[in-house]
Amino acid sequence: MSLITHGLNHVPLHFVYRRKSVNNQHKETFHSHLGIEILYIHQGRGTMIVNNNSYEIKPGMLCIFQPYQLHHLQLEYEDDQCFERSLAVFEPTMFESYFEPWPALHAFYNYININKLPYPCIYEVDESGLLDRIFRNMHEQLPTLSESDRHEEESLFLMSVFRVMKQAWNKQNEQPAADQGRRRNYQVEHILSWIEANYKQPFRLDDMAGALHLSPYHLSHLFKEATGVSITEYLITRRIHQAVLLLTTTNKPISWIAEEIGLTNNSYFCKLFKTHMGITPHQYRKKWARQG
Q: What is the pLDDT of residue 159?
């Protein structure tokens, strides 16, 4: 399992077309980005957890992740299954001016960027193949673009993607079951909600079990079966994700950040952070400052 927190490193748009993962690559990942991520799944099966809800990963699924939004993917690779996806990650403020002449599209663009979305997924979004053609066309154009033309073409690409998204979003909202891919395991969702509300406090499994009226064993087994990771692994990843957010958006001392995420031992926090991120919190902050 890995935690990946992506910056954009002065690149307005990070773009990928039909990237494949096979043989259990990235089977357990937690992701977040400093920009918006649009993820289109061509092939793949598994479970995705976003905002304490779990969703079935299916081909033809479009996912929208807002800045700093943590999402957990658990992929299935049985029967030679692969995970194939296209994606675009971008800083929304760098492209907003291109949407301004089109009021309805501009309003939807800002809605996706700013509002709390009721769900992160749209299913069966590209039955005509239009979205795939938009991504493929961008993929073919990129190597030929000059530096001066690139930003304009990226803007036109995003406008085309958002037009398709807007139509699919409106269509899905008209259906009675807009969250058709949601996996309704209410007990697991209650566990996730409890973690979100309490991850900044010192953790004891018995406290969680008592609050949720489950035995510690049943609680642990239920969560592992549904998400593929243990409660402790998920909790640590959630804490590290919050630490990354605080390191990159505040000047708070590292010892304060450790306490804010529920770790009173600063040395343990630094060791835990380095295990997950490859460098210490201080090194991460310095690296981020240089990139910015």
A: 97
Q: Which H or E run contains 134?
A: helix 130-141
**Residue reference for tokens 């139509």:** 167
Helical axes 216-227 vs 186-198, angle rounded to 10°: 100
Cβ proximity of 61 and 83 under 8 Å: no
Tell me the pTM: 0.76
Sequence-distant (≥ 6) Cβ neighbours of residue 173 within 8 angstroms: none
The rounded average pLDDT for each run of 10 residues, N- to C-terminus, in the chain (292 residues) is 54 90 79 87 91 87 89 86 94 92 95 89 88 96 90 95 93 62 69 89 93 93 82 89 88 95 93 90 86 61
Whether 180 contacts 123, CB under 8 Å:
yes
Element (H, E) at 234: helix 231-249
Token pair 């803007």 is found at: 155
Tokens of 123: 């299913």
pLDDT of residue 291: 65
- Taking the C-alpha atoms of residue 88 and residue 157, their distance in angstroms, rounded to an integer, is 10
Pairs from 53-58 (Cβ < 8 Å, separation ≥ 24): 53/119, 53/179, 53/182, 53/189, 53/192, 54/182, 54/183, 54/185, 54/188, 54/189, 54/226, 54/227, 55/119, 55/120, 55/121, 55/179, 55/181, 55/182, 55/183, 56/181, 56/182, 56/183, 58/123, 58/181
| DSSP β-bridge partners for residue 40 | 62, 86
- Residue 259's DSSP bridge partners are none
